[in-house]
Write a structure and sequence with these properties.
436 residues, alpha+beta, 5-stranded antiparallel sheet, 4-stranded antiparallel sheet, elongated, disordered N terminus
Amino acid sequence: MKILTPMAAMWLGRVCAYVLPEFLRQRCSRRNGSALVLVSVLSAVSIPTTAFAFLSVGQLTIVSHERHEDDAREYVVDLPVINMAGVEALGVSAQVTSNNPDIRVERRKLHVGDIAAGATRHVRFEISVRRHCSDDDRASKDHVSTKDPSSSSRDSKERGDCEPPPPPDLSVLGFVFDQRVGHQVTFTATSISENLHAVGSLLPKSSTSGNPVLIQTDQGAFEFDPTVKNPTTAAAACLQSITSCMSPQRSIDDCTLSVPACKTQTPWMEDVMCCPAACYIRYRSARQAGMNDLAAMLETYIDDGSCIPQFKGLRAIQNGIPTAHSCSTYTINKATGIPVDDDLQILLNGTLIFNDNDHVATVLPAVTFNGCSGDSLRFVATNWFLPCAGISPLDLTRNSDGANRALDPSGFSGGCNSSVPGNGFVFYDKTFQIPF
């Protein structure tokens, strides 16, 4: 008689016997002859899948302005966001940047909302444009202020005020869009203790230990110990919370968004099944990188699993990688820099860490940042002027030991006979996970 290790108990007891019984048909098999894994196919009950919308910027216009200081004006700008795809864009937000220090964006994060397929949604934001007054201007103003108050009716030059700033050049503004994966849905998450009882009730009991028996062979048996609580069982509970939510009306995308978020860094000690908030971020990055929903779920919650505290995913077990995921300084395109035509924004786990917004084709310097294996890197390249557009292949170097991995060996080469539009058109938007 053999008691399963916590990892084997997860793959067999939690996954194969119970985690996906309702809407996915599964089987357990051996990968590379050693590790037990889940190989799933969609059952006869269809699970809806979701594609992603492609977003672009329309013509920016100034709606109004007002003077609120002697040397500054505030403008209200209308931003049209165009959904160019045949699917709805959900929960769209925009991050606004300016590459001119005299044009300040008052609200850098904009909520746009849902955009129907092929539709345009408008959102407004404010910018402040400053004019730097010369010392002579300010001295003249101080001198005039001591004169008769009636002088206030004279023109601004005579009063010594700064000249009002010219209308702003809106081409210095850049935009990075994000969108939600899935709809928020409501379902009841059962407790872990209830699920452990359900697992045990489905299985025969050992005559010697009383534990549920998962597999019985001539050589012995594998038993499941429902009292085990550790990062592995937390991963199993997280995955089960997603699959128990799924239905013909609720997609995998919907359920990864809607499962309860864990409240602590020790989710295996919580009674209600939950998933760490970081897991949805990783899942969303995988979907945005082009994975289908089922592959993204297996990658995020089983093969990688690094979003779950202290959990060692299946890939780490197969490759002998230590449980702790390494952190280091990394450099993008350390040897070559980053040729791009025209602009590039780089985001780490959704936070902007590099912003080139000069609307000029150039070779950008290599970008160095602090990160960890499994973090997501998003590259957003935009084109402003015809006819050329492109971005070089991308690679990543871990500076602690010089290890190098390709992120995108092809990049995007539109050339100078490209049909890529200008005026801020996003022609490259890809997300990668730091692989080491």
